[in-house]
């Protein structure tokens, strides 16, 4: 069964410009979101909590128009602590839980002029346990996870900006599945104070929006950093086409999409080079599993110790696997990751970004899985900025292309992603 796609994905940048020009008010944008929620939320099930009346009241504050986000509505994955909404971490253990403080990112977004309208569905403790949320492009397919609700809410036009997190692939993969832009910045560029830990050496906050310019705008507004890429023509980047050792796991459509994107970027003036990663990066990929599993069971030590029977059996099994990892193996995995970051920096010395798949293919049918993060794990471990570039599809379902930048070079990664996005658009319009 296909979802009703009569609504339009909301561009945060366009809405902000129209508010600044006096063509729209923040209240009018809240009503746009309310209309889309009324039309689609019953099918998509992206939210765990909503307060549109409070958003309407907040939107009457005239001072918002002078702030970077201009009073735009936002949504936060339900592992960000919020005073105004329950924060339940996708778990029955925390049903009705009300934190006494907002997460730092929530405060930063509010200070930038954003209006929180609700909390979005997360998988249980941001794990691989599938949630109730459906893919807006086809209700019978997963939206991905663990930032399922945030991504689906943007894809269904219910909110222009939503925040998620990524530990393995939980921003880039759902963005690919839902056909929107997803930006996972360099490790800890957006503070994670007040966000439920999964793996403290991997967890990274991220942003969903309609396009590359939209996520760059949102990230710039919230962090106060020079990340915006709209208004300028991006310089053709030096792109390393990296298939990784997992290339054979990608679907034929995904492999074709990556190579099509590379040809489009080259035709637009980008320099494309085929690059094979050193073996150390394959070792680092394996190390990511060890680090995540070891840290997750310790992040959830209280819940596992006191409320084990309320944890989904699939997550409980993963936690038990984490308990079997020795401290020596964990330390060895950390050392591997440190060496791999140096190797990756050397490998990328002659390139601006890497071009690689965002996911093995389109969103899987059914809800037995949220999809495989195999094409994201390494880059999350490396702490590199990653961007999902939308614009391609397979049988009506979106396919995402991933741009990976150098650590700390987030604006350059966003500029390269914008370049590729425009190149893909030109090619598909021909």
What structural keywords apply?
single chain; 430 residues; alpha/beta; Amidase signature (AS) enzymes; D-Maltodextrin-Binding Protein, domain 2; 3 domains; eleven-stranded mixed sheet; 14 helices; 11 strands; 40% helix; disordered N terminus
State the gist of this model:
The protein is an alpha/beta fold and 430 residues long.
Can you describe what's shown?
The protein is an alpha/beta fold and 430 residues long. It has 3 domains: 212 residues, Amidase signature (AS) domain (Amidase signature (AS) enzymes, Alpha-Beta Complex), CATH 3.90.1300; 132 residues, D-Maltodextrin-Binding Protein, domain 2, CATH 3.40.190; 55 residues, no CATH class. Helix content is 40%, strand content 14%. It contains 14 helices and 11 strands. An 11-stranded mixed β-sheet has the order 1-3-2-4-6-5-10-11-9-7-8, with helices on both faces. Strand 2, helix 4 and strand 3 form a beta-alpha-beta unit. Helix 8 crosses helix 14 and helix 9 crosses helix 11. The longest helix is centred in the last third of the chain and has 21 residues. The radius of gyration is 20 Å and the shape is globular.
Question: What is the topology?
Answer:
Blueprint: H1 12-20, H2 26-44, E1 47-50, H3 52-59, E2 73-77, H4 104-111, E3 115-120, H5 148-155, E4 161-166, H6 172-178, E5 181-184, E6 204-209, H7 212-223, E7 238-241, H8 252-267, E8 271-274, H9 279-299, H10 301-306, H11 313-323, H12 327-347, E9 353-357, H13 377-381, E10 386-394, E11 397-405, H14 410-429
Parallel strand pairs: 2-3, 2-4, 7-8, 7-9
Antiparallel strand pairs: 1-3, 4-6, 5-6, 5-10, 9-11, 10-11
């Amino acid at each position: 069964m296909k979802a009703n796609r009569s609504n339009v994905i909301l561009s945060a940048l366009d809405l902000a410009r129209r508010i600044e020009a006096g063509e729209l008010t923040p209240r009018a944008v809240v009503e746009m979101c309310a209309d889309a929620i009324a039309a689609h939320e019953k099918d998509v099930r992206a939210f765990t909590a909503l307060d549109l009346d409070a958003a309407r009241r907040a939107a009457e504050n005239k001072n918002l128009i002078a702030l970077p986000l201009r009073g735009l509505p936002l949504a936060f994955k339900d592992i960000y602590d919020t005073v105004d909404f329950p924060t339940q971490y996708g778990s029955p253990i925390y049903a009705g839980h009300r934190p006494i403080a907002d997460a730092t990112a929530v405060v930063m977004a509010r200070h930038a002029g954003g209006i929180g309208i609700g909390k979005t569905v997360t998988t249980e403790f941001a794990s691989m346990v599938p949630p109730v949320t459906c893919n807006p492009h086809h209700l019978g397919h997963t939206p991905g996870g663990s930032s399922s609700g945030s991504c689906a809410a943007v894809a269904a036009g219910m909110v222009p900006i939503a925040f998620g997190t990524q530990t393995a692939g939980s921003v880039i993969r759902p963005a690919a599945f839902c056909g929107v832009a997803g930006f996972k910045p360099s490790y800890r560029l957006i503070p994670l104070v007040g966000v439920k830990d999964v793996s403290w050496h991997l967890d990274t906050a991220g942003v969903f929006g309609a396009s590359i310019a939209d996520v760059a705008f949102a990230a710039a507004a919230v962090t106060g950093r020079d990340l915006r890429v709209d208004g300028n023509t991006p310089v053709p980047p030096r792109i390393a086409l990296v298939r990784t050792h997992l290339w054979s796991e990608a679907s034929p459509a995904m492999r074709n999409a990556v190579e099509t994107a590379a040809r489009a970027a080259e035709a637009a003036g980008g320099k494309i080079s085929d690059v094979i990663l050193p073996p150390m990066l394959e070792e680092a990929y394996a190390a990511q599993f060890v680090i995540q599993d070891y840290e997750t069971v310790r992040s959830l030590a209280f819940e596992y110790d006191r409320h084990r029977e309320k944890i989904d059996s699939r997550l409980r099994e993963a936690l038990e696997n984490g308990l079997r990892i020795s401290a020596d193996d964990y330390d060895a995995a950390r050392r591997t990751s440190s060496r791999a970051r140096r190797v990756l920096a050397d490998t990328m010395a002659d390139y601006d970004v890497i071009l690689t798949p965002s996911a093995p293919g389109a969103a899987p049918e059914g809800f037995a899985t949220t999809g495989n993060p195999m094409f994201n794990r390494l880059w999350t471990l490396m702490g590199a900025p990653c961007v999902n570039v939308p614009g391609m599809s397979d049988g009506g379902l979106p396919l995402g292309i991933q741009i990976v930048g150098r650590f700390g070079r987030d604006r350059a990664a966003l500029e390269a992603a914008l370049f590729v996005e425009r190149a893909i658009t030109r090619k598909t319009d021909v």
